[in-house]
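User:
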Amino acid sequence: MIVYAGSIVFGGVNPLVAVTLLFALAVVSAQAGADITSPWIILLGNASYACYLLHTILIYEIGLNWVPLQGTVPFAIGVIGLSWVCAIAWHMSVEKMIHRVRNRSLCALSVSSRAASSTLSQRM
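Assistant: Predicted structure:
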C-alpha cells in the first residue's frame, strides 16, 4: 500500500479515480438499459444509508460494553454483518412504514386539492 497526498492508493489506482470510473460505468449502463433487477441488491441499496448511520453506533456500543476486540478483523467482520442485519431490519420496518404513511398523506392531499380545484372551476 502506497500513501500519497493523504489518500491511499490500491494497486496503483487512486480511489477518487476508481469511484469516478465506477459511477460513470453505472450511469452509462443504466442509460443502456442494464438496470439492476436483483431484489437482494436493491434491498441492500435501499438499506445502505441506514447501515451507514448504524455502524458507528454499533462500533461504539459493542466495543464499549461487550467485546474488547475493537480493531481486530473478527470485530470488523462482526460489526459489518450486524450493521447490515440491523439496517435491513430498520429499512423493512421503520423506513417502509414512514414511506407508506407519507404516500398516503400525499395521495389524500392530491385528491383534496383536485376536488377543491374542480369545485372552483365549477363555480366560475
